[in-house]
Design goal:
Strand order of the largest sheet: 5-4-3-6-7-8-9
Distance between the termini: 62 Å
Number of helices: 8
Radius of gyration: 22 Å
Largest sheet: 7 strands, mixed
């Protein structure tokens, strides 16, 4: 508080500046206090949503502990960042439910020597998780503004082993193929041929397949040049589209 006798001797403009500074400091203090519970919320997310649903790989859990999901969520929605749901990130796209990110990560059985392709960078959260577990991550986003935003966040977080490309994910990244694993976070109606070709022998691909928002999460393993398919769970992902916005 400004003492009354001191305030009487100050010009109105100076008082206005001091008042604004006090209010701003109070606002930042309030925001800081609200943000203090992010570690606790993240721990609860891991305990209840991931480990509680049977994903107990120590390295995967450690990646979820290290990567701050709220950094990938629009500021106005950060208080919901560790809840058990997908959240909008703009341009009709979402950041996936934490459990689904963990489930898809476990499905590819990541190794620290792996080179992984991700189709659908979105917020960059899945790529950041993979960066903690794999040697190199190549991720493609068709929406330029989202791709640039994800690239900036990943750079700020020091994810130097993540390479972001703006483009059509259906085509994959042929000049970097083959990949030990592929994660697709948007849903085509059929599994793209180029991605099948770019999966290395013995590699694993996890991908949602089906009509808009009614798909099955599918795991493919390449064995002796053939893809062995296994369905995991029903899911609802945004559709895979080309440069013109037409769904695949």
């Amino acid at each position: 508080m400004i003492k009354q006798d001191f305030a009487k001797n100050l010009p109105a403009a100076v008082l206005a500046v001091i008042f604004c500074l006090i209010c701003t400091a109070g606002l930042h203090a309030g925001e800081s206090e609200k943000n203090h519970d992010f570690p606790e919320k993240r721990a609860k997310m891991i305990r209840e949503q991931i480990r509680g649903r049977g994903i107990d790989d120590p390295e995967i859990l450690a990646a979820f502990e290290k990567v701050e999901r709220h950094r990938f969520v629009p500021e106005r929605l950060r208080k919901y960042a560790y809840e058990d749901r997908a959240l909008p990130i703009g341009k009709g796209q979402t950041i996936s439910q934490p459990y689904i990110v963990a489930l898809m990560t476990r499905a590819i059985e990541p190794e620290n020597t792996d080179r992984v392709l991700e189709i659908g960078t979105g917020s960059g959260y899945q790529a950041a998780i993979l960066a903690e577990l794999c040697r190199e991550v190549y991720t493609i986003e068709i929406v330029e503004s989202l791709g640039q935003s994800a690239r900036n966040i990943l750079s700020e977080l020091g994810c130097e082993n993540v390479h972001v490309r703006i483009g059509d994910g259906y085509k994959g990244w042929p000049d970097q193929a083959p990949f030990d694993a592929i994660i697709v976070t948007c849903a085509p109606t059929e599994i793209p041929g180029p991605l099948k070709q770019q999966l290395a022998e013995g590699g694993r691909m996890v991908i949602p397949v089906g009509e808009s928002y009614e798909q099955n999460l599918v795991l493919l393993e390449k064995k002796q040049g053939q893809l062995v398919e296994k369905q995991i769970i029903p899911v609802a992902f945004v559709p895979m589209v080309n440069d013109e916005g037409t769904t695949y």
